[in-house]
Amino acid sequence: MIAQCSYRCWYQRRTPNVYSALILCSHIWLVCSTFRLIACSLEPVKTPSDNSPESPEAQSASVLHDSKAYTPKKGRPTPTRKEAEIHAGSFRSRYSPNETWNEDRKKRKELKASMTKEEWKAYKKKQADASKQRRREAQRAMDSGDERYLLPRDRGEERRYIRNLVDSKRYINNLMMPLALALLVVMLFGNKFPAVTAMISTGALVVILVFLLEGILLGRKAARMAREKFPHTSESAFSLGFYAYGRATQPRRWRTPKPQVNIGDKVS
């Protein structure tokens, strides 16, 4: 009798934890299924250029040049990361290319020795302020959509067009991050209220299904419209659709580059 009562108490204490773990696993499985379904549903869209008659040699050459794996010859060595940053304006070397690191270090030591402690602090502060100002300017240029400062994932007329499409409307997926944070808090402290946790988990499953459906529809629509506007693009339908879906899941204030159109504007 005592053993039976002890087992019953142990089972009642363990049941909410097991139930919460099962709910969390189901949420993770649904999120993974979301990405798989979006990947499977975004099929390539045929464009008018696909129906033009071409010879097999021309078609193979066109496929090779349109492929993202094809890299045209630049006729010059690939620039290093520091050279690219200097060209973009987000990095500025503190010494000239003709100087070595040891020469610059020696020059800075001589400069420091020729200054008082207060003058050296003011000099360092001036350099730090100039560096911060350059970073702010680079960030402002990135927010404004300047192609020279954008990340590779955001470059191109197709990506700019998709950003304007997504930014011109409101979507349910805009609430994904706040709801995910709220659900995480509920799962952490939900063991004290198992009945409430069960109700919230059921509602969360319904919301995830809504996110999934809207993401599929949005990705297909954005990919179709982008490929119709840019029929000769080398971007795949999946990459364009997933870019639109990722943009929609971010709150409007957190998006980079910043929205260039207002909600309700017509994008053509």
TrEMBL record:
This is DUF3043 domain-containing protein. The lineage of its organism: Bacteria, Bacillati, Actinomycetota, Actinomycetes, Mycobacteriales. The chain crosses the membrane at residues 171-190, 196-219. It comes from the Bacteria. Keywords: Membrane, Transmembrane, Transmembrane helix. Residues 46-89, 118-148 are annotated as: Disordered. Residues 48-62 have a biased composition (Polar residues).
